[in-house]
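Reopening this ticket.

The earlier resolution said the output was attached, but the attachment link was broken on my side. Pasting everything inline this time so it's all in one place.
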Amino acid sequence: MSYNPSELYYTSLQGLKQEGMAYNETGIPMKKVLILTNSFREQAPVEYKVKRLKEVFASYGVSTDVRSAKDLPAGFEDSETVGFDFSPYGFAIDLDKDEQYAYFLETKIPLVNSAKSMSLCNNKFMTYLALSGSGIRMPYTLPSHLCYTKGDFSLGKEKDYLDFVESKLSYPLIVKNCYGSLGRQVYLVRDRKELESLETNLALEQHLFQKFVKSSVGQDFRILVVGGKAVAWMKRKNDHDFRSNIALGGVGYAVEPPEEYKRTAEKAASLLGLDYGGVDLLIGDQGEPVLSEVNSNAFFSEIEKISRVDVTKILVERLLRKYPL
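Inline output:
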């Protein structure tokens, strides 16, 4: 893919810089890009993503700063927001998934992905709700209900609802936290005893009960969508676990999904308002795509290696068009 640098509103041919600052075509100092990371967790896939973003932005003469939320104070005084000066930045790429900080940050500069999109993807129930009525197939799903304290919970109070869950889903069934990542908060439940035990343990956490898609056990498709277009994909398979996640031992393969899978991923990402995202699609009984979840902060390392598509470059070019610096 080739580019005319003028499309990006700055001159990259000479990489014009003065005291470390690039200038756009009008001679105005270019703003930088802020890459926001979590204040506590360090992950190799995030480090890879940061490294690649910095490299590709630099190739277009764009400076980046990598900071965490704790480095960028944010708060309120009287009726005003106070804190860090975000004026040097044209936009921020949020790799943190902290919803409340994202909503604050978005009052200062454009955010990728938006706080609303991030919030819809973080909470799996809200993902399904946002996509309901769209024609996108999703597993039969039922929500848990709010329990304020552990002392409030009892299996006796829950009996009728668990009876209802059993009648609609049968065994085995899936229980998953509304907030979770890397497949670690997804559980396969085989009988009532396991269901009651898990329900007791998760009483204070928002979670879902979901039909188990047997035809997709240990396998799915991960499709990366950038700017509404499916740009990279891989089939994930795990021979030792019902979950296909790479973090749980799954392996990625360069298998192109049917067009219906790509169109489903594009539709889901568009309805959720994502600049970019990873859409996970299960394989239905008849080979049809069934949406599992959507990740607003999808990792690039494995899918770039498997697909040999430079997802980072595609994303950077998309963002520089959307948010000229």
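Reporter confirms the inline version is readable. The chain has three domains: 31-112, 121-126+215-314, 141-212. Residues 44-59 form the longest helix (16 residues).
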